[in-house]
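Practice problem 4.
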């Protein structure tokens, strides 16, 4: 991952050892944000003779942006190919942005990333912990919905695909479906599930459901999003919950919305979209890199044992630095002692 100084100049990149050679890791961060038609500055200077103008109620029409950013290039764009999606959310608009829409966007983003890097870098794709990002594939392993006894035509969801095979401890595949001509076995052995799935603490063999929950292939079942990115030979990870300061694209949204607040108010969706795009394009790459550096300092502060307030203090004090000093905790203690 390439890091930058406070003026946006690149510093020596870090490498990543993989089989067959050395690759760079480039962080590709994702996030979504919504712009509203009536989200405008509420106060302004005016002459005493000016008459009050009624303001529209509510947030108005909305425009959602789903985008990918890197500190290297800003927007993930290669020639005429762009990763961002502009989505008119709403019942009478484009509908709602679902996990399937994100998967399509991620697939395209990886194409753009690979076209831009020409296989000299691996992408570290980072997402927030939204439930839609953790959604599993339709054929993913699921102990929760699996019946105990053979059930003809059983799937996770009615009309959905069959559950994919599991993996035994020796690495061999295990199919969870009997052949069509298989004779049904008598009902015996473990019960399907403890009442309310409230198993005895420490027990892993009390019921079929608990037994499956502890199997490595069920425990390690990944989300559909992660499976897609891994299948494309890149890395997927998720930000910790409730830590938006770690994702530098959040600061970019804030700067873009500040520009959007000052744009002329309009009821036309096409003009709203033009105002939003102009606000997004108004943030220079140097500023985006400064946001990335600030988030990197927060990450470094948490690694060094600082809490949120302490990390904010350290990021402000060393805003011109790429990393925090190793003795930052000691320096913080001295600063607090002097203040008291």
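Answer key:
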């Amino acid at each position: 991952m390439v890091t930058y100084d406070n003026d946006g100049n690149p510093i020596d990149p870090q490498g990543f050892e993989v089989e067959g050679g050395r690759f760079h890791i480039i962080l590709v961060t994702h996030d979504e944000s919504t712009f509203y038609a009536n989200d405008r500055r509420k106060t302004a200077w005016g002459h005493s003779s000016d008459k009050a103008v009624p303001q529209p109620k509510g947030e108005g029409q909305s425009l959602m942006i789903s985008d990918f950013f890197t500190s290297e290039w800003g927007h993930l764009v290669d020639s005429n190919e762009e990763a961002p999606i502009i989505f008119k959310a709403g019942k009478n608009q484009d509908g709602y942005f679902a996990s399937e829409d994100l998967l399509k966007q991620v697939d395209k983003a990886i194409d753009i990333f690979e076209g831009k890097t020409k296989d000299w870098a691996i992408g570290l794709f980072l997402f927030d912990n939204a439930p839609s990002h953790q959604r599993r594939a339709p054929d993913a392993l699921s102990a929760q919905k699996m019946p105990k006894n053979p059930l003809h035509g059983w799937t996770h969801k009615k009309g959905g695909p069959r559950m994919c095979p599991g993996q035994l401890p020796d690495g061999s595949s295990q199919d969870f479906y009997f052949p069509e001509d298989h004779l049904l076995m008598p009902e015996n052995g473990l019960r399907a599930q403890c009442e309310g799935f409230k198993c005895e603490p420490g027990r892993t063999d009390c019921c079929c459901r608990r037994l499956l929950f502890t199997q490595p292939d069920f425990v390690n079942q990944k989300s559909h999003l992660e499976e897609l990115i891994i299948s494309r030979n890149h890395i997927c990870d998720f930000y910790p919950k409730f830590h938006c300061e770690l994702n530098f694209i959040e600061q970019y949204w804030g700067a873009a919305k500040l520009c959007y607040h000052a744009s002329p108010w309009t009821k036309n969706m096409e003009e709203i979209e033009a105002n939003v795009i102009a606000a997004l394009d108004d943030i220079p790459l140097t500023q985006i890199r400064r946001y990335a550096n600030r988030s990197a300092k927060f990450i470094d502060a948490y690694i060094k044992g600082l809490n949120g307030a302490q990390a904010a203090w350290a990021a402000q004090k060393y805003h011109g630095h790429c990393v925090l000093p190793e003795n930052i905790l000691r320096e913080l203690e001295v600063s607090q002692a002097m203040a008291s």
